[in-house]
Design goal:
Elements lengths: L1 H26 L3 H13 L8 H8 L4 E6 L19 E6 L3 H8 L4 E3 L2 E2 L4 E7 L34 E8 L1 H7 L7 E4 L5 H6 L8 E7 L10 H10 L2 E9 L9 E8 L4 H9 L1 H10 L3 H10 L6 H9 L7
Parallel strand pairs: 1-2, 1-7, 2-3, 4-6, 7-8
Antiparallel strand pairs: 5-6, 8-10, 9-10
Length: about 325
């Protein structure tokens, strides 16, 4: 009772002084920086927990099958989720730039040095030698770079240094070729090609999809991001998270990381989750969506071990603290 009273008083005081703190931060030109920092801390708040024991109990030696499209740098190199969970995944790495693919082959079992597209085809990739991670099947649009807060002196980094022809396959063809029957996690970060790549996925139903989405693309002729959202809706996925990437001069992010899961509000989505419930629970915990997971577990009869469900229900979602 006393603790609750102290907490209530503290919140009341904080509510009164926050506007003053905000004015001071604006004066010091630190307001947006502090907001971004606190937002990042919220996004990673559930890294406080270690779900390793739960994941081991759920899956044993069975790995989470993952397709990493645009794998330059390695699996989970941006640490979108805690690296403590990397060993629970079996990554299939897709990297069309051969030199970069070679770097991955000593570390990963599956590395495909092909491109992905909506059909079997040959495409030209624009290599940006001074900014290799921004190489794309689309040409840079230098007139849009200022929206991404790219400085004048850095624009030359977007010069195309080489055009290289790449053999492209579809997601379906690439996975079937190596004997993958189910895909649990799909990540696509391909500088504008996400829409075309997803059009080539018809047989697989990942439990969680993470995409880089360009709201204001820095490339020419990239399909509008609304087409990507519409396609995912048609595939029966719903967005559950988005985080801004990089700097921008707009009040909405110029680029975002978006996370999608099967639409659990209809029977088709529910069935996809139920058919692979242990992996779904694992991915939701790894990505920190604890409160939403609890709701989904209450909505769908998972026929799970009650002890596991009780353990999950004990965790509080620190994102909302």
């Amino acid at each position: 009772m006393f603790k609750k009273k102290i907490l209530k008083i503290s919140r009341s005081i904080l509510k009164k002084i926050l506007p003053v703190i905000s004015l001071l931060l604006i004066k010091l030109r630190l307001n947006r920086r502090v907001i971004n920092f606190l937002s990042e801390q919220s996004n990673k708040a559930n890294d406080y927990y270690d779900f390793s024991n739960i994941l081991s109990d759920l899956n044993g030696e069975d790995k989470i099958i993952s397709l990493d499209v645009g794998a330059q740098g390695g699996f989970n190199s941006e640490e979108v989720f805690s690296s403590r969970y990397n060993n629970y995944f079996e990554p299939i790495m897709i990297e069309p730039i051969k030199e970069e693919a070679e770097k991955l082959k000593s570390k990963f079992r599956f590395v495909l040095d092909k491109g992905l597209w909506s059909s079997q085809s040959k495409k030209k990739i624009n290599i940006l030698g001074n900014r290799l991670g921004s190489s794309s099947f689309y040409e840079p649009n230098k007139s849009s770079l200022k929206i991404h807060s790219i400085k004048e002196k850095e624009i030359s980094n977007f010069n195309i240094t080489e055009k290289r022809e790449i053999n492209c396959e579809t997601i379906d063809f690439s996975l079937e070729k190596i004997g993958i029957k189910k895909l649990d996690y799909l990540k696509i970060d391909t500088q504008g090609a996400e829409f075309e790549i997803l059009k080539g996925m018809k047989k697989y139903k990942p439990l969680l999809i993470r995409l880089e989405v360009h709201i204001f693309s820095m490339y020419k002729n990239v399909p509008n991001w609304s087409n990507l959202i519409k396609l995912l809706d048609e595939l029966n996925y719903m967005v559950i998270d988005w985080k801004e990437i990089g700097s921008h001069v707009t009040r909405t992010p110029a680029e975002t990381d978006m996370v999608f899961i099967p639409n659990f509000t209809n029977e088709t989505g529910k069935q996809i989750i139920k058919d692979n419930k242990k992996k779904f629970i694992s991915l939701m915990l790894i990505f920190g969506h604890i409160e939403l997971l609890k709701i989904i577990l209450s909505e769908i009869d998972m026929e799970m071990d009650l002890d596991i469900l009780k353990i999950i229900n004990k965790f509080e979602d620190r994102y909302f603290f």
